[in-house]
Amino acid sequence: MKLKSKNCKMLFVLLMISGINFIFNSSVSAQSFDSDTLYFSLVNNQYNKSDKVKTEPGQVQEANSLNQFSQNFLTGDWGGFRSLLDNTGFNFEFVYKADLFSNLSGGVERSQRFLDNFDLIFTSDFKEALNLTGTNLTVHVLGNGGGSPCELVGASQGISNIETIPTWKLYQFLLEQKLMDDKLSILVGLYDLNSEFDVRETSTIFLNPSHGVGDELAKSGLNGPSIFPTTSLTARFKYEFENGSYIQTAILDGVPGNPENPYGTHIILNKNDGLLVVNEMGIINSEKGQLKSKIAFGAWIYTAKSEVYNLKIFNSFPNYQNNYGFYFNAERVFYSPYENFNIGLNGFVRIGYANPQVNPVDFYLGTGLKYSGLFGTDNYELGLAFAFSHNSHDFRNIAELNGQLIKSYEVNLEATFLIQLTPFLSIQPDIQYIINPSYCTVSTSALVFGSRFQVYL
């Protein structure tokens, strides 16, 4: 196993070096190009639309090579079979991510960790396949491997959003029906809550997991809510208005999977587990189908009560309360020099609160900025983010009685740079500075550097 891990690391490093050399050895024009020539400019700024139609001897091979860099998937269209499936309502997506993180200073241990993630996603539009209007099926298989960069730091908020127990599982299995001219949507099955709730487009660039689901919600429940890497049976109802604003409710099994066995997929229905009920309302301002601003408010509650963290009743009869909380999201476009809002400066903020007597984290604040459009294209994105997580007083006191020291708060500062080499390939250098890592008793801060490699197969 050690040899296999070392080989993976060597392959990952070689790919990263090759990608970086590709960037710095390419001549990139600072002007805007049409979408079908945008990625060609990253390879050779001598190539443009007129080159694409040249058929003179000696130039056909070069054009074919450049066309390979413009395709959406590394494996191409499978001789036209992929397009045929798509036209009949079937779609396959295979995404591979690999992270390599090193703890450069502070934290628990000076070392590095390699980890990777596979997403195999099958979707079907039954309108094309079975003539059932508004009916969709999604099957999502998840595979993860590698080590834990979080252990190097002792961070409660994590380092990489693909870190988990190495295993393969059926992650999502969803059947969705749309009604009332697609305004009303009803969905049932294994469901990732964060696919539609507590979502901000601007924060998806960041690798730290707290910029997905806020830390207070992510740490709630006996086995977390129904998010990565373990999902539960869910019924979700959503109504979308003409302007894109929406209201949605999800009713989920209160304990996803099997807390005693994180490997594979487990569906266990027990009345003592209760339910998790989440409601969210979003107000959206968009133009030509592109998001300009969004404000969302969400509230959640577990119907099964949790034992209270309270020293006054320690070693006496336990007391129980509902675990509940709420969150607020906002994001907007601050500056865009073009009609395309994907290019420019975007910002976001998220605030979350949870019952401090039964939840490990009672308050979370996250905010950040993302700039897209370096060199006049959206192939390069720069992100800066701040995340503050506060561990509840009662939780820390109980942990201390059990011999574990947990700090009162943790701050994560992240800077990341996404480089889209081709439509199917990207690399992303990332640096994080963790102040007061919650579970680290030997250091007050840590500096972590890493990179992500992602390919659509």
Can you tell me about this structure?
By secondary structure, this protein is mostly beta strands. The chain has a single domain (2-30, 71-456), classed as Carbohydrate-selective porin OprB (Porin), CATH 2.40.160. Helices cover 15% and strands 43% of the residues. It has 8 helices and 18 strands. The strands form 2 sheets. A 16-stranded antiparallel beta barrel has the order 1-2-3-4-5-6-7-8-9-12-13-14-15-16-17-18.
Globally, the shape reads globular
By DSSP (H or I, 4+ residues per run), the number of helices equals 8
Distance between the termini: 26 Å
CATH H-level superfamily title: Carbohydrate-selective porin OprB
Measured as a percent range, the helix fraction is: 10-25%
Strand order of the largest sheet: 1-2-3-4-5-6-7-8-9-12-13-14-15-16-17-18
Radius of gyration: 23 Å
Q: How much of the sequence is in beta strands? A: 35-45%
| Structural class assignment | mainly beta
| Count of strand segments | 18
Provide the succession of SSEs. HHHHEEHEHEEHEEEEEEEEEEHEEE
Assembly status? single chain
What's the number of domains?
1
CATH class category name: Mainly Beta
Give start-end ranges of low-pLDDT stretches. 1-63
Named CATH topology: Porin
Largest sheet: 16 strands, antiparallel, barrel
* Named CATH architecture: Beta Barrel
Mean pLDDT rating: 86
